[in-house]
Amino acid sequence: MDPYIGFLHKPSYNHAALASDIIEPIRPSAEYFIWRLFAEQDIRQEHFIKNAKKCLLSKTGRKIYYHQLEKWLPPYRRWLRLQSYQLKNSLINDNDDDVVLNITTPIQAELF
Length: 112
Known about the structure:
By secondary structure, the protein is mainly α. It is built from five helices and two strands, in the order H-H-E-E-H-H-H. Strand 1 and strand 2 (55-57) form a beta hairpin.
């Protein structure tokens, strides 16, 4: 599988469109995760380094971010791996069936 050729996202220079396609179903959860970091003030203004062209997380900000990410990420890691295998198997098995990704994320699955 070529990570630069996707189904939903257009290929562009230095952008792995297939990776973007696979993670698209968890985008709302990922955005909520980031929003929560700010809302709960885990990440604050002083955790950024700013200059005329950039705004980057400081070393302290990155430490906080990665710590929180490691707590949030586990259910999604397995789900993303399964999605990748499912897509690979759909493409390898040369049949006329459509390639289908499971768009029910781990968190959504708990709700049903």
